[in-house]
Amino acid sequence: MRYAGTAHVVGANIDTDAIIPARFLVTTDEARLGANCMEGLEAGWVARVRPGDIMVAGPNFGCGSSREHAPIAIKGAGIPVVVAHSFARIFYRNGFNMGLVLIEVGDGYAELGDGSRIEVDTGAGVVRNLDSGAEVRCQPVPPFMREILDAGGLVGYVRRRLAGEVR
Amino acid sequence: MPQTLAQKILQRHCDEPVGEAGSIARCRVSLVLANDITAPLAIKSFEAMGAGGVFHQERVALVCDHFTPNKDIDSAEQVRLVREFARRMGVVHYYEGGEVGVEHALLPELGLVGPGDVVVGADSHTCTYGGLGAFATGMGSTDIAAAMALGETWFKVPPTIRVEIDGTPGEHVGGKDYILRLIGEIGVAGALYKALEFGGAAVRALSVEGRMTMANMAIEAGGKVGLFAADERTLAYAAAAGRAGDAALAPDPGAAYERTVRLDVTGMEPQVACPHLPENVRPVSEVRGVAIHQAVIGSCTNGRIEDLREAAAVLRGRRAARGVRLIVLPATPGIWRQALKEGLLEVFMDAGAVVGPPTCGPCLGGHMGILASGERTIATTNRNFKGRMGSLESEVYLSGPAVAAASAVVGAIAAPADL
User: Which chain A residue has its CA at the smallest distance from B51's CA?
Assistant: First the structure.
């Protein structure tokens, strides 16, 4: 898959309280959560996002609580992909389960400046900064996670399991 | 091959041989947990999966503890949804109202988790049960929905960091101080994707409650689990909680660790984590005098009876300073009742505290102690992220119960010895 959009850079150790503060967890609605995406980082942060834009983050993105509302809020804000140095583990699982594409690039994230136009090519395993021409390699998706993605996420995977289609 | 605690526990629940760190293990789960915030999403996913019923009616726990007693209409609707699902599915362990406590204090007390179990919960502090020797970890709601439907889940076998804690602690230094000190040393991503396995003389001397306090914050170092061997203390705790058939559990000698971190707690001061990350840890003497507006004693980290005793010992015969709101939330109805019997609640009331119901409430900025801009709190909770307890312009300092109590009396961060 290919994604292209403007990079919105956030820092290191962005926690789930920053992504979606607990006071907004009284709903499971994607649009309502998306309207408050990153509200714990900066009031009104989401106003800068146009659908298809890409979030770029430092190490340990999504640390803190297990709230699945966090990846849902990011998707709800219109962001299909997060490119980060690294992700916190619960968030990483949640992202895949929710169909939010997560790309781990290590130190290469520094090449993806705020406001730059970037392109993510998951097939080629590369992230490009279209403004500077920089190319960053990304980690391949682990095989087991691919099985879940192939089923359209965890919900689809379990549906197939329950229907006896896969073991 | 000698196994770490993580490998050993996973193996008990896995039909295939559990491999090296990094390999995938599919495991049966002993218990699946969700709360009033995460269960509604799990139920949505569960239904989308087309699941007709939960895998086992006694192995699913639904605990409405975060925004309860329901703080507003939206949270009441969420709890109603969970309640109706529990009834429809015949879930035995559904808790709200006078039966509910903070999940990670409640489930061990009820004997629903114990040594050797694999527990998954839609709550990041599910790792608390590592204090009992359970491989317990937090996941998102959809992972939990899958586990509720299938009775199994998958893990990447984590590499293990061994943490050896030795020495003899001074007065008012305990599990919370050890774990804060460790997080200060290895950082909030220091154990990312990894297991922490605790051992050493100071850990063996620690109560099971103290171990749960430490395991609880493994996630604050990015850890998947925080594991303790199950010894005679663990077995006594489990038996007192009404469990039968538990056995001691320890890692194999010669198991492969990614690295070993050593701490000596002899002469260590009580520790405080400063805003806005749990890794910003300093000895209390370096933050002494920072003015506070609120002190919170409670939560899944430090709301157990031992914590309340520690706070009461400091507060006895003293009062919270003018302008400080002291909030005490015993973590379960059992703890509340015990504190009542022991006269601890009276000590708190005499100190000018608000004694509230068991709830996660203020820890996550839910209710019962939200901060305005410019306000600062000290709390025995587990996270001090920006805006965690209210306004983005408020601040949270984390400590153990004795320091929180002493700080309430002084009106500024203080050690019990300062009183």
Answer: A162
CATH of domain B160-264: 3.40.1060.10
The amino acid that residue B110 corresponds to is L
Among candidates A43, A64, A158 on the partner chain, residue whose Cβ is nearest the Cβ of B146: A158
CATH code of the domain made up of B25-154: 3.30.499.10
Nearest to B138 among A17, A28, A66 (CB): A66
CB atoms closer than 10 angstroms to residue A26: 22
B239 touches chain A (CB under 8 A): no
**Per-residue DSSP letters for B254-269?**
T---SEEEEEE-TTPP
Contact A4, A118 (CB under 8 A): yes
Which of A25, A36, A139, A154 to mutate: most B Cβ within 10 Å?
A25
Q: Which two tokens stand for residue A103?
A: 């790309």
Q: What residues does each domain of chain B span?
A: 25-154, 160-264, 273-418
For residue B383, give the chain A residue with the closest CA: A64
Pair B324, B293: CB distance under 8 Å = yes
User: Is B218 part of the contact surface with chain A (CB cutoff 8 Å)?
Assistant: no
- pLDDT tens, N- to C-terminus, chain A (167 residues): 899 999 999 999 999 999 999 999 999 999 999 999 999 999 999 999 999 999 999 999 999 999 999 999 999 999 999 999 999 999 999 998 888 989 999 999 999 999 999 999 988 889 999 999 999 998 766 677 777 767 767 898 899 888 887 76
* Chain B CB within 8 Å of residue A64 CB: yes
- Whole-model pTM: value is 0.95
Whether A154 sits inside 8 A of B222 (CB atoms) is no
Q: What is the pLDDT of residue A123?
A: 81
Which amino acid, one-letter code, is at B158?
A: P
Question: Which residue from A65, A93, A162 is facing B143, i.e. has the nearest CB?
Answer: A93
Same fold, B160-264 and B273-418: no
The answer to whether the Cα torsion of B155, B161, B162, B165 is positive or negative is negative
Given the candidates 2.60.120.340, 3.30.499.10, 3.30.9.10, 3.40.50.11740, the CATH classification of the domain at B273-418 is 3.30.499.10
Q: How many CB pairs under 8 A join A and B?
A: 140
